[in-house]
Every structure is written in C-alpha cells, then in structure tokens.
Specification:
The structure holds 2 protein chains of 2 kinds. By secondary structure, chain A is mainly alpha-helical. Chain A has helices at about 5-30, 40-45, 50-80, 85-95, 100-115, 120-125, 140-175, 180-210, 215, 225-235, 235-260, 285-315, 320-355, 360-365, 375-400, 415-435, 440-450, 455-485, 485-490, 500-505, 515-539; strands at about 80-85, 280. By secondary structure, chain B is an alpha/beta fold. Classes of the chains: A mainly alpha, B alpha/beta. At the A-B interface, helix 10, helix 15, helix 19 and helix 20 of A face strand 2, helix 3, helix 8 and helix 14 of B.
Chain lengths: ~550, ~325
C-alpha cells in the first residue's frame, strides 16, 4: 500500500484514481444500460439476425487471431533471427500496412476484385469468358483476408521486439542442447515471446470486433452490425449499449482464460540483446523467405497504395488549401492524444505496481478492453458522462452568477482527447507495462535511497529507462488516432475536421475513388510515425 | 510606441461594440455532406453576412450530441437526409414547430411534418434503373412487380441497412400492409442476382455491366455515374405511375429547440425554400427542388417527368422501424 502523505504520495493516490475513473465511468455508463428495461429489439434480433451474426463474429475472431498470429509471428521471426536477401529492407517495410485504415483497405480491395473491378475483367478477357461470369468476392474469406493484412502489424511489431530482446544466447543454448532450429523456435522462442504475441493478437482481434467500416463495405454482418442496427435502425441506443457491454464481457472472459492458461510461467531474458541473427538462409530457403515477405508486402501495401494513387490522381483537382488544415488537425489531435494516453498509461502502469487498490486494478484491466467496443458507442458514453458534468457546472454557474454558462467539455477538444484515451489505452498500456516489467525493483530501491521519490522518481529515473516503451506507445496511439473515425465524427469541435472525416464524407456517398485523395494524405502522414516506430525498434 | 499602445487600448475598448455589430453565426448540425451544403451557405453569407458553423456527422450520433448538449449547446438548425431522421429528432423533442407561411406554401404537404417540426428542402426519387441493352421500359411496372419470379436472378439491391431502402419498404407497408410488404421483400430477396451492395453506385455499375438487369436507386446516384461515364447502358424507369407513384424522400431541416437565434434560423430556413436557393440546393446533388415552380437542372429534367407518392413522409418515418424488422425477417441483408 502506498503512503498517502506528502505531495507526491497524494499525486499518485488521486492521479491514478482520477485516470481510472476517466476510463471506468464511460464503461459504467455502457453497462448502466441494463438498468433500463430490455426492449423488444432483443427479441427481434434474437429471432432473426443474431444467430448468423454471432457465427460470423466467432469466425472473425478465430480467423483474425489465427491469421495475424501466423503472418505476424512468421514475419517477425524471419526478419529478426534469419538473414536473407532484402531482410534489412523488409524489416521496416513490413510495418507499413499499419498506416492504412481498415476501411480504406476494404474499399480498395472491393474496387479491385469485385465483378466490376479490373481483376475479374482481365480474367474474363484472358480466358474469353462471357460477361455473366463472375466470382462473388463479398464473403467472409475476403473480409478475413483484409482484416489480417491490415492488422498483422500489431503482432509483427510486438513479436519482433520480443524476438530481438530474447537475444542470441537462448537460441545458442538450445542449439548446444541439440535442438533443431524448428525445435528451438517452438520450445524456446515462442513460449518466451508468448505474452507479447498474445498482446498483439488481442489488439488485432479487438480492433476487428470494433470495426464497422470494413464490414460495412463488404456488407458482412457481425455483432457490431447488431449494435448499429439497434441504434440507427431502431433508434434504441440503450439496446445498442447492452449489446456492446456483452461484447466487452466476452472479450474479458477470453483474455482471462488466456491469462489463466499462461498461469504463472515466467520467462526471464537471458543475455543482452546482441544481434540475434543466427540463421543464414541460403539458396531455395532464402528465396522462399524473400518471396514470402515480398508477397505480403505487395498485397498489404504496394497494391492498395498503387490503386489509391491511381484514383487520387484522377481527382487531383480536389486538392486545395483545406487539406493543410485537415492534415494539421489530424496531426494535432493525434499528437495530443498520444501524449495524453502515454502519460496516462504510464501513471496507471506505475500505480498498478505501487497501489493495489481495487479501483485502479479493475479500471486498468477493464479499461484496456475498451478497445473492443465500437468507437461511436464508447464516444457517446464519454459524451454522456461529460455532459452530465457540464450540466452540473452550468447549474452552479447560474446560481453563482445568474448567467447561462456555455459548454465546458462537450464540444471541446478535451472531450475528444478523453474519448481517445478511453479507447486507445490498451495500445499504450501494453508496451509501457512490459517495459516497466523489465525495470528491476533494485533500481527503484537504489533511487529511493538517493532521495528520489514520487513524481521525481518517475520523471528522473523511470522515464529515461522506459523511453523506448513510451515512444512505442505514443507512436501506436498517434497512428491509430489519425485513422480513427467514429469518435472524431461525434466529438470533434467546430473546425476540427480531419482527413478521416473527409474520407467518411466522400466514401459514405459511395464516392470511393474520390475518397482516395484524403486516404493517400492520411497514409502519407501515418508513414512518418510508422517509420519512427521501426527505426526505434532496430536500435 | 505610445501611439500603438493607445490604438490597441481603443481597439480593446471598442471590442464589445464591434462584436455587437457582428452579424450572427448560425450553428448547423448536418448529416447532409459538407460539399453539398457549403456553396449554399456561402451564397447566404454573401447576401446577408450571416456566418455559419457547420458540424457534419451520422444522424444517430448527431442527435445524441444535440440531446446531451441541452440548452447550452448553442446549435440552431438540424439538416439531415431522409425524413426518418428528422421525424426522430422531432419525437425526441429536439425540434420546435416553425410557424411560417413562406415554408408551408413552398413545401408540398407530403414533404413536411404535419405539425411543422421539419420541412423538406430537396427531393430525391428512389426509382428503378435498368440495363438498356437487355431490356426495354415496357417490361417494368412497379416496385411490387420486382418480386415476381420472372425477375429471378436478375435483381440487384443495395443493403437493407441503408435508410433509403427502409423508407421505401415503410411506404410499401403503408400502401399495403405488413404481410403483403413482407411478401414483396421476400420476393425481392429470392430474385437477387448478387448479395446486396453497400451503395447505390455499385448496384448501378452491376446493372450496367450485366451482372443483373435492374436495381432500385436514388436518381442522383444515376446522374453522378452518368456524368462520369456517359456511355453506360443505363436508364431510369419511373415505377408505380398507375398506383401510388414513385417513392420520394427529402433532405430537409428543422429549427432546434435549443437555438439561441430562432428568428435568424427561421429566416435562413425560409430562404432555403426560396427559388434561388432551391435551384442551387437541388442542383448541387442532382436532386429535385421541393417547390413545384422551380424546375430541376436540365440534366435532371432529361430523365423525364413522373408522379410522386403523395404519402406523407411522417407516416413513412413512423413505419421505418417496422420496415427494418420486416427486412430482417425476410432475410434481406
């Protein structure tokens, strides 16, 4: 238990509780929907679409988990422990798809592959097939493929860092014990990297669960579809919140089971992170490795970008000075959210180690699941919480001054940043938490004996040690906030239109080709933090 | 330096006066896309000096934000597409009735709220589009007819999640009854040539390329596509001319209860119903003006004349949730 005396003691005590409340309150609002009676929307959904939706959603979870796991881990293993032509280049290039929003990827691929697209047209021409020949691409396999191609970078990034950190020593020890390279991968490297890999996979799955853009483009119905149907079709936001809370509960159970399965196994890293590249691939194997990496990169980045650029070129006249402000807003919101979420994540991760209070622990555990909730639902919950405060403040203000107050939070940048914080804490928390995990308790004891305590201890000792983890957290949040659409749509203050908002305005009208220009701008802006992300990991 | 300071002081002192002389700024919440409104707003600003704050978004979240804001929100006007969204805003008590002869005289009865909470400002027709290479117009008659087995494997539709289809099915419920409407929708689903599309343009392209023969779309999507690719073998057909007429919907507006400038907002809405604004507002999106005395753009006129469904849109809006349920039961995704 932490002591509550002194300024810094109180800072941690109240700071961590305030942040915990900031995440927990919107979630409580969502669960609070159960206080209202359930409506007939439930009966209707259960009798009609729900069984299919649940099936589709389970398929999505399993497919995205397996796909990102296979792709992310295999690529990370190749670039971090093997040597083959182009490796240095693939090392960072494979992270590029992270800059592409899922919804953009979806409409690009549909445009390329559907009945009317160039691919089927070429096939018809090449084989002399009649116009009526077609392949329906709008089914589950395509949705899964697209999700995996966009979301594998989460697993890749985290697994890669984990493999690099394991160092050469563990693998060499395995080798001297007579293990083959496959054996040492499955019996040493994989179990050691498991927490990181699971962290990546769960981020990918949660993002897939919350997604509405890509599934809407493919008209693929998931649980999120039911949430939005309740809201936009029946105007029953309460039923929508109830459904969202079930989604949250489901993810909670899933992650709890995983944690339980991992039980108490603990892996300490041996040796330093010397260059772990142990396997020099030659001949056929080297070619296979290069081809595999190249193919993934081609599908996940080169092809969609080429198509986007082609479309953007056709609508280049749309480019005007407004894009500067859209870009500026996108970057500004991303930067503010990144700083706020990283700082908040650090306070919470540190507080978890110093303060075992129920509230903090529960908030962090549950708060990091908020990532699975569809953005609009979480954003509305944040808005309701803040508007409640606004109304109370306005009442007090009226009583004090006799004049009407204007909005304090809702409609301001703060509310949006808070929504980002609640949504993206999961992204920031994992890298910070695992970085903190590696700081030995002796460091803190030594620092304390030198008179560093509280905020000063964190600022002077922890922040420098944790810098890589903090930077990863900030960059992840930055990129994801730039791509974020629903919360930004709802809570942005006047004049704060972002590139994602522009994409929505065009793509929701079916003007996908015209939406390519803001998409290209968004990807280009997102590439900078992505570059930093990998460049940092390489050092 | 002293002079500069003095000047600054005077400016500071004069600021309240200057601000009082400022024209008002109206705050608009809109689910109609920014690029389809901004030119109209610019024209109004040029004519009157009134400035605008435009906040665009999806209708559902917009209503939540308005509701959460309460009286401190400072929003004046709600503009949305589809009468259903305006109807819901009125149901939630977000809109106040507008007592305006200018509006009631300009906007036909079917396209406005019977209690004057909202008014249509542009009209869109949801009609049939067919492949002219394969079919001639005499093969079509009505929405209902598309449920006939002769269309098996020849129909394309947009997803039932789009409000435009929900409104159309709501009018089918109003003109027939739930059972009959469900039968029609089931017939459509049985006739589908491909899974429902996520937007009207995709459905039109599918028809143009021969994946299917006919689809149901909003006329302006047809206009946009033909502008870009004039050689497409596509044409519109106006169905139900012997029965209820073509299903039309609106993009429209209402005055928000929390508006700090109700008079100015009302004047603005009235201006939108005037011929000049009507022309521009409709033309921007290749829609039809709601005023019968204002002709649509010549490009739109070329699609021919038709008779609208005279069912009041408030009634269609009331039945919209029933329509969603019905489409779920019929397996229309």
């Amino acid at each position: 238990m932490t002591s509550v005396t002194g300024f810094s003691g109180r800072f941690w005590y109240w700071g961590s509780r305030l942040l915990a409340a900031a995440i927990l309150v919107p979630l409580i609002v969502i669960f609070g929907a159960w206080l209202a009676p359930t409506t007939e929307v439930w009966g209707h959904l259960a009798a009609t679409v729900l069984p299919t939706l649940i099936g589709n959603t389970l398929l999505l979870i399993v497919g995205v988990a397996m796909g990102t796991l296979l792709l992310g881990v295999s690529l990370a293993w190749l670039v971090s422990t093997c040597e083959f032509p182009g490796r240095r280049w693939f090392d960072w290039a494979l992270m590029l798809p992270f800059a592409l929003p899922t919804y953009v990827m979806a409409f690009v691929f549909l445009g390329l592959l559907d009945f009317q697209g160039p691919v089927q047209g070429l096939v018809r021409e090449a084989f002399g097939l009649p116009m009526s020949w077609s392949v329906e691409v709008r089914h589950s396999a395509s949705v899964l493929a697209i999700m995996v191609l966009v979301l594998y970078p989460y697993v890749y990034l985290l697994a890669r860092v984990a493999f690099l950190k394991q160092g050469r020593a563990a693998l060499e020890a395995a080798h001297t014990l007579g293990m083959t390279s496959w054996q040492s991968f499955f019996r040493i490297a994989l179990p050691m990297a498991r927490p990181a890999i699971i962290g990546g996979v769960s981020l990918a799955v949660m993002e897939a669960l919350a997604d509405f853009g890509a599934v809407a483009v493919f008209n693929y119905d998931t649980f999120t579809t039911a949430i939005y149907k309740s809201w936009f079709g029946f105007f029953d936001l309460n039923a929508a919140s109830q459904l969202a809370s079930l989604l949250l509960l489901f993810v909670f159970i899933l992650l709890y089971l995983e944690r339980y399965g991992r039980s108490r196994a603990r892996f300490d890293e041996v040796g330093s992170s010397l260059d772990p590249r142990t396997y020099h691939l030659r001949g056929l194997r080297a070619t296979a490795a290069s081809t595999y990496c190249g193919l993934v990169l081609l599908l996940a980045f080169v092809i969609p970008m080429a198509q986007l650029l082609l479309w953007a070129h056709r609508w280049i006249d749309d480019l005007d000075f407004a894009y500067l402000s859209l870009l500026g807003n996108t970057l500004a919101l991303g930067a503010m959210a990144a700083i706020a979420t990283t700082a908040g994540g650090l306070v919470l991760a540190y507080a978890l180690r110093r303060d075992t209070s129920w509230l903090t622990r529960a908030s962090v555990r549950i708060g990091t699941l908020g990532y699975a909730i569809p953005g609009s639902v979480l954003a509305v919950a944040v808005m309701w919480s803040l508007s409640w405060i606004d109304h109370r403040v306005a009442e007090v203000w009226l009583w004090l001054t006799g004049t009407e107050a204007t909005w304090l939070f809702v409609g301001g940048v703060f509310s949006l940043i808070l929504a980002y914080f609640a949504r993206f804490l999961a992204l920031a928390f994992n890298p910070i938490d695992s970085a903190l995990e590696r700081v030995r308790p002796s460091v803190r004891e030594a620092a304390q004996s030198l008179g560093f305590t509280g905020v000063r201890l964190v600022w002077r000792i922890y922040v420098p040690i944790l810098r890589p983890g903090l930077l990863t957290a900030a960059l992840l949040v930055l990129v994801d906030v730039m791509k974020e659409m629903p919360a930004t749509m709802l809570l942005r203050p006047f004049g704060w239109d972002t590139l994602a908002v522009r994409i929505y305005g065009l793509s929701s009208e079916g003007l996908w080709e015209r939406a390519a220009l803001p998409s290209v701008a968004l990807v280009a802006a997102g590439l900078i933090p992505v570059f930093l992300l990998v460049a940092r990991g390489r050092r | 330096m002293k002079k500069l300071a003095l000047l600054l002081l005077v400016l500071l002192a004069a600021q309240p006066v200057l601000m009082a002389a400022d024209p008002v700024t109206l705050t608009l919440y809109s689910s109609r896309k920014a690029h389809l409104i901004e030119p109209v707003l610019e024209l109004y600003t040029k004519q009157t000096g009134v400035q605008f704050n435009l906040h665009t978004g999806k209708p559902g979240p917009l209503l939540e934000r308005l509701d959460a804001a309460g009286k401190n929100g400072g929003a004046d006007v709600l503009l949305t597409v589809d009468a259903g969204n305006l109807w819901h805003a009125a149901q939630r008590g977000l809109l106040v009735p507008i007592d305006s002869e200018a509006l009631t005289q300009s906007v036909p009865v079917a396209l406005r709220d019977p209690e004057n909470h909202w008014f249509g400002l542009s009209k869109r027709a949801r009609t049939l589009a067919y492949n002219t290479e394969k079919l001639s117009p005499d093969e079509f008659s009505s929405y209902e007819d598309l449920a006939d087995p002769k269309w098996r494997g020849r129909l394309c539709l947009r997803t039932s999640k789009k409000v435009y289809n929900q409104s159309l099915v709501a009018t089918l419920i109003a003109h027939h009854d739930v059972e009959k409407a469900e039968e029609i929708v089931k017939g459509w689903v049985a006739n589908l040539a491909a899974e429902p599309f996520s937007n009207d343009t995709k459905a039109l392209q599918a028809v143009a390329m021969g994946q299917c023969d006919v689809t149901i779309v909003n006329s302006y999507y047809f206009g946009r596509l033909m502008r870009k690719e004039p050689d497409l073998k596509l044409a519109l057909f106006w169905p139900n001319q012997d029965s209820q007429g073509v299903h039309v919907n609106i993009s429209g507006g209402g005055l928000l209860k929390i508006s700090p400038h109700p008079e100015e907002a009302k004047t603005f809405l009235e201006w939108l119903a005037q011929p000049e604004a009507q022309s521009l507002f409709a033309e921007l999106n290749l829609e039809y003006p709601v005023r019968e005395d204002v002709p649509p753009a010549s490009e739109v006129q070329a699609w021919g004349e038709f008779r609208d469904d005279s069912l009041n849109l408030a009634e269609a809006s009331r039945l919209q949730a029933d329509a969603v349920r019905l489409m779920d039961r019929a397996g229309y995704r």
